[in-house]
Amino acid sequence: MSLKIDPRQMIRKYLPYFNVVFTVNLVFSFMATVLSTFSSKPFLIEQEISLSRVISQFIIFFLTGGYLIGAIYYEIARKNEYYLYYNLGISKLRLNLRTYLFHLILMIPFLIFAIYAKQI
Q: What is the pTM of this model?
């Protein structure tokens, strides 16, 4: 006898972890993008800041450093909540892989927009 799992219930199990990591990731990525955009502009030479460059920097920060900062934050600040996922039958590896896959899927529209903005 096989158990049928409702996809909505499975998504609900991951939502608390998604929300925390996503929020930390979004804040870090936005701050890093703003800092890198304005610190890379030379003071004496007028250089135009392009929208595609800013979006591509945001995507890079969001998919690399921001995600890692979010996962590390969860590991340090909410370490005991991993027991919830363990009791639900979700390992740390599965939790992190699905969250990262969610972040990748979320960045596809931004990537398409960055490519479009580069052509303008």
A: 0.80
